[in-house]
Amino acid sequence: MKSASLLSERLRSHRLTAPAASVTDAAAHMLAVQSQDFTAGRWALAARTRREPTLHLVDRAFDRGELVRAWTMRGTLHIISARDLRWVLSVTGDRQRQQAAGRRRDLGIDRTMVDAAVAAVVPRLSDGGLTRAEMFEVFSGIGIDPSGQRGIHLLSELTLDGLICQGPVVARERVSREQRFVLVEQHIREHAVPDDPLAELFVRYVDGHGPVGVADFAWWSGLTLGRSREARNRAAGRVVEIEEGLFVSGARPRRSSSAADVLALGAFDEYYISYADRTAVCAPEHLALVGPGKNGMVRATIIADGRVIGCWTHASASLGSAPELFVADADDEAVRSALARFTRFLDG
Predict the structure, then answer these.
(1) Distance between CA 83 and CA 42 in Å, rounded?
(2) How far apart are CA 64 and CA 144, in angstroms?
(3) What is the C-alpha separation between 99 and 158, in angstroms, rounded?
(4) Number of helices (H) and strands (E), helices first, in the chain?
């Protein structure tokens, strides 16, 4: 597939040139949006939605229980539609446990510790939920030291067990980066039940990220290559193979005639991060500048016609500072306009 066509199709699949009607529609279409940087994850949804939704509007979807955040794949936090959480974890949970098993043994996390944590936190979570710091206080109160990532791994294990998720956003005067952990059975009112969850995961990934191959799906989902091939086979007839090994959705969204050519995407955005090979969207000589770096960070990017042309920071955008551009012929006015949309997202 020619590069220009691939980029055009990916921009459409990502809802960057075919924005969704609402934030929750964007989340459902993408299925899971990487979100260890919570502000960036919320911006990823807003950037894929019509009429420039603000941060406050996105947060309301969490408060209503329509969106949650959880360790859905690769041991990484993602925003996901609440109704999709249970079935996604039914596919990815065991693999995540396998990948984390060694570290959890080193931390002394076993079934006895998990059961003790469950017994301690469940009564406390029944009244509006707890912040991460408050969860760690509960762990400490029963003799479990949450330091050294033990607390985070315990929270992840309780999430994979289907007990908890991160729901309502903690109110702050400015940008809140914190949520409350809540009980899934109390917070999520409806659970989707696909006939074939493994096939559904492949189809939904293709819907929100295509054109893609099996290797891309394996990277994104964290599943083995063998399991990913099985997912592809079971999804046959529900996706379109436009070239050998390259799949797109059978029902692609309609492009908007007013879609911008230059976009400011947040840190860890799915458009860049969610593929085995990122050179389709970023020149090889610029990959190290974007990341992941040694610290695991992936920088926020400026995209022009589907290609990465620079990086920016959330803080610098708010202060009006210039981004770091990799090309000399960038449209400066279009770049400023893209960054201004992010500022309106925060301030609205």
Answers:
(1) 18
(2) 32
(3) 16
(4) 16, 11
Which pLDDT belongs to residue 323?
Answer: 93
Q: Spell out the domain ranges in the chain.
A: 31-187, 197-249, 262-347
Over residues 245-276, the pLDDT tens digits come to 999 999 999 999 999 999 999 999 999 999 99
Task: Please give the helix or strand (H or E) that residue 70 lies within, else none.
Answer: strand 67-73
What's the rounded Cα separation, in Å, for the pair 187 and 68? 9
Residues in the chain: 348
Distance of alpha carbon 51 from alpha carbon 32, whole angstroms: 22
197-249 under CATH 1.10.287, yes or no: no
- Summarised one tens digit per residue, pLDDT across range 291-347 is 998 788 999 999 999 999 999 998 777 677 889 999 999 999 999 999 999 999 998
Quick one: which of 343, 282, 348 has its CA closest to 313? 343
CA-CA distance, 107 to 154, in Å (whole number)? 10
Do residues 166 and 152 make contact, with C-beta atoms less than 8 angstroms apart?
Answer: no
Sign of CA dihedral 46, 287, 314, 41: positive
296's CB contacts (< 8 A; 6+ apart) are none
Bridge-partner residues for 310, per DSSP? 302, 325
| The pLDDT of residue 227 | 98
Q: Which residue in the block uniquely carries the two structure tokens 């500048």?
A: 289
Q: Each residue of 140-157: pLDDT tens digit?
A: 999 999 999 999 999 999
Is the pLDDT at 112 greater than 90, yes or no?
Answer: yes
- In this prediction the pTM is 0.96
Residues 6+ apart with CB under 8 A from 32: 72, 73, 78, 79, 80, 84, 88
Burial class of residue 262 (count of CB atoms within 10 Å of its CB; 0-12, 13-18, 19+): buried
